[in-house]
Design goal:
It is a single chain. The protein is an alpha/beta fold and 158 residues long. It has one domain: 2-Layer Sandwich (Beta Polymerase, domain 2), CATH 3.30.460.80. It is built from 4 helices and 7 strands. A hairpin with a 7-residue loop joins strand 3 and strand 4. The longest helix has 11 residues.
């Protein structure tokens, strides 16, 4: 059984509570309330297990990056999703949840979102000399030809 919308709405008065098609209750909070929201989810709502972090680049929005965090409750067997938006920077949860370290580095590396307070915010996937952030909507679309047997005549490699 999922956390009720009423429970979430009372816990996050400044937040927007939704229940998407996947059934995972989702709370969107302003960036200023983000660290308090993480603590509420982990301790008051008993969802202490951090599972995932990803980002979505919504280029046309003012705060273009939507950070999406997923938490799990081992005792209740329920999921809880937390979202916040930023234009470039967010507080790091790595000091309190060490397992978030590489997730934040991945979002930094691919989207360019900086996490203030992160102990080692360096590239984790792209080469150190890579210019830009490949999953940003502003990056040019392009491709590197792959030498498959069926494409050798197309690319002139066969």
């Amino acid at each position: 059984m999922a956390v009720s919308a009423e429970t979430l709405q009372s816990a996050f008065e400044a937040g927007e509570v939704t229940s998407p098609a996947d059934g995972i209750p989702t709370v969107r909070v302003p960036l200023s309330a983000f660290t308090d929201a993480v603590d509420k989810i982990r301790f008051e709502l008993d969802h202490p297990r951090f599972v995932d972090l990803t980002a979505v680049d919504r280029l046309t929005r003012e705060d273009r990056f939507e950070l999406v965090y997923l938490f799990y409750s081992m005792s209740q067997h329920t999921w809880l999703r937390l979202k916040t938006r930023t234009d470039s920077e967010s507080p790091s949860i790595t000091p309190s949840i060490t397992g978030a370290n590489w997730y934040e580095r991945e979002v930094f590396d691919l989207f360019g979102v900086k996490f203030s307070g992160h102990p080692d915010l360096t590239r984790i996937m792209m080469p150190n000399d890579w210019q830009g952030y490949p999953l940003r909507r502003t990056e040019p679309l392009g491709a590197e030809p792959v030498d498959f047997t069926v494409t050798q005549s197309v690319y002139g490699t066969g």
